[in-house]
# Entry
Amino acid sequence: MTSLGKGLVLTNLVLSFGVAIWALLVYANGTDWSNNRGKDGARDGELLARIDNVKKWADSLIPAARAWNATRVDLARLDERRASDRAWYEKELAFDRSGATKQSRALVVKQTNGQPEYGPDGRPVMVAGADQFGQPLESLVAYNLARESLHRQIDAETKNLTKSIEEDTELTNRLGGDATGSKGLQHRILDERGKLAEAINEQLFVRPLLINAVVESDLVFKRQRALEARIKELEKVGVAGK
# Structure
């Protein structure tokens, strides 16, 4: 046998003696958990002390148990009432959300001096509601539909306003001109007025010349007729001379 084997056997023997001694001590000094009475000066079983402790506190627990049982009855009644109240509140909320109309107004809690009123059943007293303008209070669905309709009207009016702004911008550009340098109607009117003034000035300048031309033309016509008459006379004289 090698030295290692001898060492392991010796270690095992020592551990075995240690465990045996520990078990003996536990057995000799262990707690008796039975309900046996001690004999010859031995201690009673631990269970007897626990039973005595329970009996000691049992009398003080009886009132608490009775109160707890009474509270359970009240709690059961309140649970039953809670189910009924929940159904009532859900009905009221459903009506206010989708059922109320102008003819059948939404209901609100009645208040006196800023405090809600309660009926004999412990529930709030409900009365027909009105908005801040005194109009019948309708359902949430009705107000949502009205809001959507108003948004559509606003969108339509916004489109019309945008169209009107575009038309106004176009007419303004046509009237005063745009950034590209195109002349507007005002500039064209001023140009036409300038042209008219130039035409009038030209007319004033040409009119005397035209009068002179007419006068000279009339004089030329007179001389032409006199010359023609003279030619005719000369022709007559020439014919007579032949």
